[in-house]
Specification:
Structural class: alpha+beta
CATH class: Mainly Beta
Oligomer: single chain
C-alpha cells in the first residue's frame, strides 16, 4: 500500500481582466473571450451575497467593497490550480500590481488564513500577514 507523503501541484499562469466581483473572495475574470469564476485560494471572507440573508454580515460588505476597489477592471495574473473546486469554480492566487491579493486580504484583516483544505505554497507570507493584524 502506498502512502501519500506530499502532493505537489503545478499552477497554470494566466493573465486576465477582472470584470466582476461577486464578493470578497470570488471574482469573475475574462480571458480569451471567455468569462470564468475564480475562487481565491486560502482565504474565506465573510458572506455578503449569500442566498440565506441571515448569513450576510456587514464585514462581508467591507471585504467585497475592498476587493472591488483593488481588482475591478484591472489586469491580474492568476496562478490557477489545474482542477476546479467543489462548486466548479477555478481556484487561484490573484496577483495585482505585483502583490499577492490573497495574502493582502489576510493582512487587511478581511479574512483568516484559511487552511481547511491544506496549507498554501505561500504559507510563510500568509502567516506573517496574520501576525500583522
Amino acid at each position: 500500500m502506498l502512502k501519500v507523503i506530499s502532493l505537489i501541484f503545478i499552477f497554470l499562469l494566466l493573465q486576465a481582466q477582472v470584470v466582476r466581483v461577486i464578493d470578497g473572495d470570488t471574482i469573475i475574470v475574462k480571458y480569451n473571450g471567455k468569462s470564468e469564476t475564480i475562487r481565491l485560494l486560502c482565504v474565506d471572507t465573510p458572506e455578503s451575497v449569500h442566498p440565506d440573508k441571515r448569513r450576510n454580515v456587514p464585514m462581508g460588505i467591507v471585504a467585497s467593497n475592498y476587493t472591488k476597489k483593488r481588482l475591478l477592471g484591472k489586469q491580474v495574473l492568476l496562478e490557477l490550480l489545474p482542477f476546479n473546486g467543489r462548486r466548479g469554480r477555478h481556484l487561484a492566487y490573484v496577483f495585482v500590481d505585483g502583490q499577492n491579493f490573497n495574502v493582502e486580504l489576510v493582512k487587511q484583516g478581511l479574512s483568516p488564513y484559511y487552511t481547511k483544505y491544506g496549507i498554501s505554497k505561500y504559507d510563510t507570507e500568509f502567516r506573517k500577514a496574520e501576525k500583522r493584524r
